[in-house]
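Most newcomers find our protein records easier to grasp once they have seen one. A learned vocabulary of local backbone shapes supplies the integers on the structure line. Here is such a record, shown just as it appears in the course material:
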Amino acid sequence: MGLLANLVLLLGFAWLVRGLLSAHEVTWPRTFLAVVIGGLSGTALAVLLVVSPSELVAIDAEGLPRAELQLIALPFQLVATMVAIVAFELVSTRPARPGLRLRNPLRALTRRLRIAGRAVQVSRIVSRHGLAPLLGLRRGHTDVRSPEELARRARTALEDAGGMFVKLGQLLATRPDLLPPAAMAELGRLHAGARPLPREEVMAALTRELDSPPESLFADFSWTPLGSASIAQVHAAKLADGTEVVLKLRRPGLEEVVERDLAIVRWLARLAEHRTSWGRTYGTIALAAEFGDALRGELDLHAEARHAAEVGVALAHDDRIVVPRVFAAFGTERLLVMERLRGQPLSQLTTPLPAEVAAELADALCSSQIDAMLAGDRFHADPHPGNVLHLDDGRIGLIDLGATGKLDAFERSSMLQLLVALGLQQPTLLSEALVAAGALAPEEDRDRLDRELARFMATYLDSGLPSPSALTELLRLLGGLGVRLPAQASTMFRALATLAGTLEHLVPGYPVVDRVAERGGEELKSRTAPGDISEFVQQEWAQVGPLLRRAPRHLDRIATQLQHGGLVTRVRLFSDGDDVRVVERLVNRVVLTAVALGAGLLSVLMLGTTTGPLLAGTQLRLLEVLGWIGLFASTVLLLRVLLGVLRSEVEDP
């Protein structure tokens, strides 16, 4: 009966503590387990206190002083039960935000061990290919004789690492602002081919995404994949009405692999930026974050379907360009169903097209992309020759719309200013345009940048607008100077550079940037034409003139206030609500901790007091009872603060 009464007491206490600590994730089974753990732990500690270690071996269960043991064990049982409840709450805490995060510390530890093992594997591969000094893993210099050899080593290392590192190399191959042409060509040889998924696994994944077996929804389905890459696998099928479609199925369990490899990429980026000069120049930490965002974007096939539909709407007016239709009724985050286009990629054309046909298709492709950019519509951000098809009916088809871009009104205006500055060949105007685009801070010292831009213009620009290669060299120059265009602006320039290379397959020497000026309208043409400088000045004065007229009046008011001591500066601290919430939470925790420590100290003093009134009919003093109550409250407050701190650590990304 004594054991049962003790168990009931601990259960009631655990229920009370669970509410006081706001341990909402601790269910009743876990509460009972916490009581068992607390009861056994408290009893064990009491036995060690009551019985000396020398007598513990010889004494039997009947010889233990039960009354004294239960009285001494109860405080330890209560404290151990509270600690167990806190531990179970931390283990059971769910992430507060959606994402690829783990649900408890045990899984977090397992994940860290897997990342550590993968990091060791990648480090060995990097060292084996002689690239360790380049990434800051080892001191010294990389023993390479040419940039081509360095690019070859990087390609083979990425291939050996596999997983998402191959995808990293493929994305770098589309970055003319970071790599020279030779390195881009070498990394362009990377193939993301992967082992095809077994039929049973494809069947299970499709049934899960479609809520039905694929045979019940498609008139015909080919189990032999058209392609199998590291992210997705593509199958051909036919709808009930005979429409040919392709199904892009994301590989099951890919999220964990992506996050593991991205953790390694972030680690290597931090090493490179902290230990190497080139890493600091190019900002490898920011590049790794950009790569992670791009890769996660490719994982979301639902977003790709939405973007493909937006590109289709933007190009619907041009019947020479075909964007595959998306069948949204079948689509999910892991499955994309699109119309199948019959044709041949431009990269695989064995015989060149007739000159007139090639020129017409090049005009259609170029104008469609530039119109979408300047109109603020979504455009294809990676129109390389493998993603552009020459269809069997003679039109152009765009596929693989996982990488797209869209410029807002401010970004479009900034990009036009950049082209204006290049057309006028004014390095100062170009640096001001970079400030307007958000690539530079207004207060930054731009003397060196102006000199480099002037040297660039003298080297690459003739009269008129720049060539596509000049745009690529400008991006590479800005990257070497540590200047980064905003994400969408950089996407547009890379898309133009990629588009220029694709158009070379159709019409050698195609004037892409001239087409940008033509499609940009009379405003851009008038600003870039040397004969219309007066009109350019008039347009700029219309914007700047009113500000300059008001400037003397404002300066006079400021000078008057300074003279009479009436100039006052007003600073609003904590104007941001997030800052206020952070400070409030910190102050609350400090106050609770101070109250808990104060109550605990006072309670200990009460427990040590031998004076005071006795409770009626007992040998307990009132101050002792108040001391135990205060000690309990102090312990609850401290555990609540500790639980809040640890819970935030578990929930934060």
Notes: The chain has 25 helices and eleven strands. Confidence is low (pLDDT under 50) at residues 94-103. The longest helix spans residues 533-563. The radius of gyration is 35 Å.
